[in-house]
Amino acid sequence: MKILIIGLGGVTNGGKTTLAEKLKKMLPNCDIISQDDFFKPESEVEMDERGFKLYDVLDALYMDEMVKSICNWMKSPASSGVVKELQNPSDNLKNTDDVYILIVEGFLLYNYEPLNELWNRRYFLTLPYEECKRRRSTRVYQPADTPGYFDGHVWPMYLKYKNELEENESNIVYLDGTKSQEELLSFVYTDIIQELNQLME
């Protein structure tokens, strides 16, 4: 049995979840773990002096629980119940019966050391400031974004963590989140298939 762990990280509203869901439909034995499922309850999230809840930091998440979930999946991926026949398996996707793929998607994946030895491939979606702010304004959050929250907390934290990556981490594929979903899907899918084929050799 072989497993492939794919990281799909990057900016808020960059298209991570959409891309993950589309890849899941195209890849064999594929499952998704979402970082958003590991947020602490609002009462446990710190607040800064401006009254902003600090959600866009590692401390707002149960990261140890997330690592545990990934490791549990790795121990027995077949028991996660995701095994499925592909509708139209492509010609370059043969003999994948005992290959299992986990896509982990979230906004803060590569700044947490215990996760960094797990990835086979890492992708990072980026957006320019204006487009990110526009997309964010169309989404409804619980709790809702307070006035000034994007400029005061969300965007500065994104830049901080992205700069950390660029200084310390290699082997991250940066993706332009303004490209069409089809273009992004095609690129990432092709890249994962190449990785799969190397794994099968």
Automatic annotation (TrEMBL):
Gene Ontology biological process terms from the UniProt entry: NAD+ metabolic process; pyridine nucleotide biosynthetic process
The reaction(s) this protein catalyses: beta-D-ribosylnicotinate + ATP = nicotinate beta-D-ribonucleotide + ADP + H(+); beta-nicotinamide D-riboside + ATP = beta-nicotinamide D-ribonucleotide + ADP + H(+)
Pathway annotation from the record: Cofactor biosynthesis; NAD(+) biosynthesis
Entry's transmembrane regions: none
Any single GO CC term annotated in Swiss-Prot or TrEMBL for this entry: cytosol
Gene Ontology MF term list: ATP binding; metal ion binding; nicotinate riboside kinase activity; ribosylnicotinamide kinase activity
Pfam family name, one: AAA_18
Keywords carried by this UniProt record: ATP-binding, Kinase, Magnesium, Metal-binding, Nucleotide-binding, Pyridine nucleotide biosynthesis, Transferase
Transferase among keywords: yes
Listed InterPro entries: P-loop_NTPase
The family this protein is said to belong to: Belongs to the uridine kinase family. NRK subfamily.
Protein name: NRK1 kinase
Gene for this chain: Nmrk1
